[in-house]
Design a protein that fits this description.
homodimer, alpha/beta, 284 residues
Chain lengths: 284, 284
C-alpha cells in the first residue's frame, strides 16, 4: 500500500481534467500528482460505456505502476461509466467528479430544480440524476448534452460571441425549467465559466465539480491519514504528466491554464496496459 | 490475391468516410464494400502522425481479414499521415482522398490560387500543398484548419446560422487571398457543402474529394481488371459495416446520409489487430 508521501493519480480523456489538477494544486499544494491524459483516444464523451471502462482500466493499470495512493477520475464521462467498476477492483481510494458536485448542488439549491450540462455520454448515463437524488430524492434534474463545447474550449474561443450563441442555444430549454443551480458537468466547462455566467444569469448558482472534488480529496486523504506530510518543492518535482499522444500540443494547452509552465510531458502507449483476464469487457 | 468479386475496403476515423462510401455506391453500384469506422478513437484530426499510422495499420490488418481487393483511405488525416506507409506494405492497390482532389483542383483553377480547409492534422501535414504542387508547381496554396466543423456536422447543425458564422470566420483569411478554388479537405465537410457555397460565394469552385476518389477508384479497378463483374443485389448483401464503438449511434448517423437504411453494424475490438514487429511505430 502506497504511503502518504506517494502521489495522487489524476486522469482524464485529455486536457479537461487539468481544471481538476489545477484545483488540487491550489487547495492541496503539498500533494504530488501523476496526471494522465488519454489524448490518443479523446474525447470520451461520445463513446460507449464498455469502451470507456476498458480505456479507464488501462489507465488505472498505468497509474498503479506509479504507486499512487489515491486516484481521482477527473473526467465526468469516465466517472459516470467506470467509477464503480474501478472502485470495486482497487484497494486504494478512488473518487470521481460527480458525487461531490451533486452533494454541493443539493445543498445550495433553493427551489430543488437543478440543471446539468455535460457530454452526450455523461448526460445519457443519468449518473448526475442518480447522485443528486441520493442526496435529496425531491430534486428535479434537467440534463442537457452540449457536444460542441469541448471543441470550442479547445479551439480557445473562451470569450467569444459564437461560444455565447452556442451556450445560449444549449441553455434555452433549461431556462424554461426555472433552475436555480447549474452543474458544469464536464471538466472543460470551467474554462467557459464566464460565458455560462453571462448566459445563465446571476440568479443561477454554478457548481464546478473540479473545485468540489479537490475539496473531497483533501478530506478523504485527511481521514485516511494519507495527507502528504511535507512539500517536496517546485512543480517540476511534484507533478508528472503523461499522455497517449501529441505531448507538445498537450503542453501548450496545459501551460495556458496552469499557473506554471510544464517542463516535460511523457508519451506512453496506453494500450500496452491492457488488464489481463478482462476480455469480457472488451467487446460491446 | 483477392479477385474482382472481392469487396473494396473503405475506412475512416468514424462517420465522415461515409460521404466517400456514398459516392462509391453511387458511381460504382456493383462494387461490394467493407466499411470500417474507428469510432472508439475518433477523431483523428487532432492526433499525431505516429498514432494515426498505428491506428491505420490495425485497421488495414482487419480489412485484410475480409480479403478486400483494394483499400480506400476515406479520411484526409489518415491519408496525409499513413497512405505512403500503407502503400509500401501492401500488394493490393491503396488510394487516399488527397491526390485525386489535388489533380482536379489544379485542373479547374483559373488563377492558380487554391484554398484547402481540413482538420488541424491534415492542414498541418502540408500534404495537400505537396500534392497540388506535384501537378503544378506554380499554384499558391492557402490552408486553413477548421477544428469545429466536424463537431458541428456531427451535431447535425448542417444548415444553421451558428455554422454559417463559424465557416465565415474560418474562411475570412482565405477570402483575402483571392482563391478561386476551395478543396473540402475533410470527409465531413461535404455535409456542410451548402454552407460553404453560401459563404465562399458562387465564384469559388468547391472540390469534393469524396467524389474525386470514387472516380479514381473506378478507373483504377478498370485498369487492373478488378472491376466487379456482377451485381450481387441489395445493400444488405453488398455492404458490410464495422465500427470500434457505439454501433447504434453510427447506424443512426449513417442512415441519415446514406440512400438506404443499414441493417447491421458490427462492433469489433480494433486494438486486437495490432501488427506484430512494428513496435518502432508505437512510441511517439
Amino acid at each position: 500500500m502506497a504511503g502518504s508521501n506517494a502521489p495522487v493519480g489524476v486522469f482524464d480523456s485529455g486536457v479537461g481534467g487539468l481544471t481538476v489538477a489545477r484545483e488540487i494544486m491550489r487547495q492541496l499544494p503539498e500533494e504530488r500528482i501523476v496526471y494522465f491524459g488519454d489524448t490518443a483516444r479523446l474525447p470520451y464523451g461520445t463513446k460507449s460505456r464498455n469502451t470507456v471502462i476498458r480505456f479507464s482500466r488501462q489507465i488505472v493499470r498505468f497509474l498503479m505502476t506509479k504507486e499512487v495512493k489515491a486516484i481521482v477520475i477527473a473526467c465526468n464521462t469516465a466517472t459516470a461509466f467506470a467509477l464503480e467498476e474501478i472502485q470495486r477492483e482497487l484497494r486504494i481510494p478512488v473518487i470521481g467528479v460527480i458525487d461531490a458536485a451533486a452533494r454541493v448542488a443539493v445543498s445550495v439549491t433553493g427551489n430543488n430544480r437543478i440543471g446539468v450540462v455535460g457530454t452526450t455520454a455523461t448526460i445519457g448515463s443519468g449518473m448526475y440524476e442518480k447522485a443528486l437524488k441520493q442526496y435529496n430524492e425531491k430534486v428535479k434534474v434537467y440534463g442537457k448534452a452540449c457536444p460542441l463545447l469541448v471543441s470550442l474550449a479547445e479551439e480557445g474561443w473562451l470569450h467569444d460571441t459564437i461560444t455565447e450563441e452556442v451556450v445560449s442555444r444549449y441553455l434555452k430549454d433549461l431556462r424554461y425549467k426555472s433552475i436555480d443551480t447549474l452543474i458544469l458537468g464536464c471538466t472543460h466547462y470551467p474554462l467557459l465559466r464566464s460565458t455560462f455566467r453571462k448566459i445563465a444569469g446571476e440568479d443561477v448558482t454554478l457548481v464546478n465539480p473540479a473545485y468540489e472534488v479537490a475539496m473531497e480529496l483533501g478530506e478523504l486523504l485527511k481521514t485516511r491519514g494519507l495527507s502528504c506530510g511535507r512539500d517536496v518543492g517546485g512543480a517540476g518535482e511534484k507533478y508528472e504528466f503523461f499522455v497517449s499522444d501529441a505531448a507538445e500540443k498537450f503542453c501548450e494547452f496545459a501551460n495556458s491554464i496552469l499557473p506554471f509552465d510544464i517542463e516535460q510531458v511523457k508519451q506512453i502507449n496506453i494500450e500496452d496496459f491492457e488488464a489481463e483476464g478482462r476480455d469480457a469487457f472488451r467487446e460491446g
